[in-house]
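Side project, low priority. Logging it here so it doesn't get lost.
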Amino acid sequence: MPNSNTYWVHSRPGGGYAATREGGKRASVTADTQAEAWGEARRLAGKSGGEAFLTRKDNHRIRARNTYGRDPFPPKG
């Protein structure tokens, strides 16, 4: 079962950008610019303690990733 707290930002076929929750069929957020969609995806992921991924428009590879939530294995020191 996919992590429902993960958001992917990708380009839309008709123009603009969308942030979609992993496993979801509809966009959680739509925006005219990539920066707006990325900001909203990070906000949603931060509220839910999940992750946000930003993909490139040309080849759909991951461009940026932000992880939120509690780290179960913090470094010692």
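Brief comment: The first strand starts at residue 6 and ends at 11.
Revisit when time allows.
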